[in-house]
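Subject: for your reference before the review

Hello V.,

The reviewers asked for a structural picture of the protein, and I figured it would be easier to keep everything in one thread rather than splitting it across files. Below is the amino acid sequence we used in the manuscript, unchanged from the supplementary table.
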Amino acid sequence: MHGGPHMRGRLDVATRTVLLSDGTKVAYDGLIIATGVRPRNLPGTPAHVLRTASDALALKERLGPGRRLVVVGAGFLGAEAASVAAGLGTQVTLLEPARVPLAHAVGDEVGSILAQAHRDHGVELRTGTSVSEVVPEGVRLENDSVVEADTVLVAIGSRPNTEWLEGSGLSVDDGLVCDEFSATASGIYGAGDVARWHNPLFGTSMRVEHRTNAAEQGMAAARNLLGARRPFAPVPYFWSDQYDMKVRAYGYLRGHDELRIVEGSLQERTFIAAYRTDDRLTGVLSVNMPPRRLRPWQQAISTRTAWGSLPAPSRPIG
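And here is what came back from the structure prediction:
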């Protein structure tokens, strides 16, 4: 089922039927819920968001020399949009409440390298800055000042499309809560951005909004629905293009206890960073390194490699 903020469908687990928004009832023997997410927005004047191709095309029409764009949120989506807009000659202001872009995911020092790349390309990056609303002339900050812009892009995350599951008895907590098999109830599975499942490889629940995960989890849910009963325990993967940087990462970087530069140089923006959680390697991130250099690290994460058995650090951080 496709999800959205105005969805009026409903799930009746007892009778194993899905009620569609047009009143049609569809019976099921097995059900995979893959209703996705929708962008979070801000109060005030409607602003641009990025979720669909038409969203991207509508934003592109507003970019170019002489145009001013404010991007709210310096996560991967906001950072990539700022990079593209600056490359098209747009005057870009990037606003982020954290100390550095992606601090919660990649750590302060790697975040600082990403921050410097924005500034080197003429983007005005303002961290520690929270936006309260979008106004016709730009955005209003929480200190009541206004940052002026012709166009505003809001990139502050997403909301899982789970409203239609209210009253179904299924567990919802920032997504549809699933077990290690991606099951949420007998004969019902979740997949993709909407699913928060227990990944036994990392011993934690996670909801991953990357294309590779959606494809892999859809197949895993289908196999398990058909009787495979195999835990879904992937090493998550994402990549990001920002300016002249190709960023790649494997694993689960959030909540890490330490990061270590194991190859290359932060200052030259060509490096591999390894991430520790408790006593094991749980993530790796590279900038401008060949993919083959990351494969051994991906394997090391999947085999639960102990942190103490990693190569000696170029430099420990944090």
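For the response letter, the relevant points are probably these. Confidence is low (pLDDT under 50) at residues 1-6. The two ends are 44 Å apart (CA to CA).

Happy to draft the paragraph if you're swamped.

O.
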